[in-house]
């Protein structure tokens, strides 16, 4: 694996909606399992991450750039036993950047589903917040284990967060399925302060999973309309929800540079274009060993050719050594930031952090985000401040970096 090693650092001065129906579950589902889903505020302290600095005086000794992220992000499972046994086994992330002013004290809001050892009993949506993408708040929201959980048959998955600017609230939407009755739905909870959350409501439901299931939804809220991209039968499809009514299904065009099949997606709108980040497989029987691909579209329906932007390290001992999964990205102040899902064949799962001026030149760092978060954040953003001034990737070496290996 190639990595970039810091030789010296040049000092530079840096300044530094719609109303949905009540939660309608299938007749044989125990609704009581959702009675306590809105009470996270009673057990969560509104604690901001420790402050960090981007001062030129940050000690960058030993700082390295890498292709992938050797360290996971510190995203925990609310179940303390699972977290102790399988730490930071988060999966399927989604990140929102709510701007420099933030929302209820935080700029970045992140959802994910813990996946300890690949156990979907704990694949329930969680939310945390951050001001630096590295140090995270206490868990702001989580769903309890389903009382009617059945391995691989009845479970939660695929969380997505949306900022509804008309109502100034954060909304989390996730997938709930019961394969035994061919049922699939998207459920939604919302919050006006990030701590107190509503009970789940039905955002979408179907008893025809084969035709209408919405796997890995990527959602953009746009002036009263929920624009929803999702995967069904390895195809990207699109629907809109406005005034409580769903549009017809539309098929998206997304060719790949190789013979890959889309499994999970994330969407953003950036400079009037729609950008998609997918994890895709070349073998429909293998969704464990996938890569990440990226493409753009003018209209959100016809995308250019999806090209590979990241692959596993190939080292069985790395947490992301064997496969990549649903990942999320954002664009801010001339920079892309990617929170990517990864795994190895020992069933170690996690989420890493990458950045780059474009999606075809992404970098990780050798920082320890879990055990040294404050110093790591200082180094990370100190380098970002310098990197923004580079006119080309070649300046990485010109400004004191070289390729090693």
Protein model, in words:
By secondary structure, the chain is mainly beta. It has helices at residues 80-85, 209-212, 373-387, 395-398, and strands spanning 3-6, 64-66, 90-97, 108-114, 126-130, 141-142, 154-164, 169-178, 183-191, 201-206, 215-222, 225-232, 235-242, 245-246, 250-251, 261-270, 273-281, 291-297, 307-310, 323-332, 335-343, 349-356, 364-365, 401-404. The protein has a single domain (3-404), classed as Tachylectin-2, Chain A (5 Propeller). It is 7% helix and 39% strand. Strands 11, 12, 13, 14 and 15 form a five-stranded antiparallel β-sheet that branches. It has a four-stranded antiparallel β-sheet with strand order 23-2-1-24. A four-stranded antiparallel β-sheet has the order 3-4-5-6, with no helix packed on it. Strand 12 (225-232) and strand 13 form a beta hairpin. Residues 1-47 have low confidence and may be disordered.
Features of the shown structure:
single chain, 405 residues, Tachylectin-2, Chain A, 24 strands, disordered N terminus, four-stranded antiparallel sheet, mainly beta, five-stranded antiparallel sheet
CATH second-level architecture: 5 Propeller
H/E element order: EEHEEEEEEEEHEEEEEEEEEEEEEHHE
Mean pLDDT: 89
Largest sheet: 5 strands, antiparallel
Residues in helices, as a percent range: under 10%
Tell me the number of helical segments per DSSP (H or I, 4 or more residues long): 4
């Amino acid at each position: 694996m190639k990595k970039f090693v810091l030789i010296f650092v040049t000092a530079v001065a840096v300044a530094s909606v719609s109303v949905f129906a009540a939660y309608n579950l299938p007749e044989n589902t125990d609704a009581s399992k959702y009675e306590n889903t809105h009470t996270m505020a009673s057990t969560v302290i509104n604690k901001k991450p420790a402050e960090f600095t981007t001062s030129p005086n940050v000690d960058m000794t030993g700082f390295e750039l890498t292709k992938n992220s050797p360290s996971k992000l510190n995203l925990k499972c609310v179940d303390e036993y699972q977290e102790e046994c399988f730490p930071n086994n988060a999966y399927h992330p989604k990140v929102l950047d709510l701007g420099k002013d933030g929302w209820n004290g935080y700029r970045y809001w992140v959802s994910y589903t813990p996946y300890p050892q690949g156990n979907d009993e704990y694949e329930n949506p969680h939310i945390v917040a951050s001001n630096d993408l590295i140090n995270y708040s206490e868990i702001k929201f989580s769903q309890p284990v389903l009382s009617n959980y059945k391995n691989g048959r009845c479970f939660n998955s695929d969380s997505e967060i949306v900022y509804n600017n008309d109502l100034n609230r954060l909304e989390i939407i996730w997938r709930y399925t019961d394969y035994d009755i061919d049922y699939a739905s998207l459920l939604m909870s919302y919050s006006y302060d990030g701590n107190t959350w509503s009970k789940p409501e039905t955002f979408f439901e179907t008893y025809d999973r084969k035709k209408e299931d919405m796997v890995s939804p990527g959602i953009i809220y746009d002036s009263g309309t929920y624009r929803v991209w999702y995967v069904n039968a390895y195809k990207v499809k699109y629907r809109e929800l406005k005034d409580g009514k769903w549009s017809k299904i539309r098929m998206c065009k997304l060719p790949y540079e190789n013979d890959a099949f889309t499994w999970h997606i994330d969407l953003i709108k950036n400079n009037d274009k729609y950008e998609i980040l997918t994890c895709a497989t070349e073998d429909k029987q293998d969704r464990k060993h996938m890569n990440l691909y990226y493409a753009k579209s003018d209209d959100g329906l016809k995308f250019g050719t999806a090209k590979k932007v990241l692959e596993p390290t190939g080292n069985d001992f790395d947490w992301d050594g064997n496969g990549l999964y649903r990942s999320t990205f954002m664009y801010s102040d001339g920079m892309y930031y990617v929170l990517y899902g990864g795994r190895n064949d020992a069933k170690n799962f996690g989420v890493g952090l990458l950045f780059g001026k474009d999606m075809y030149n992404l970098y990780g760092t050798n920082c320890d985000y879990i055990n040294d978060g404050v110093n790591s954040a200082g180094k990370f953003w100190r380098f970002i401040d310098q990197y923004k001034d580079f006119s080309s990737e070649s300046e990485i070496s010109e400004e004191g970096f070289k390729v090693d290996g």
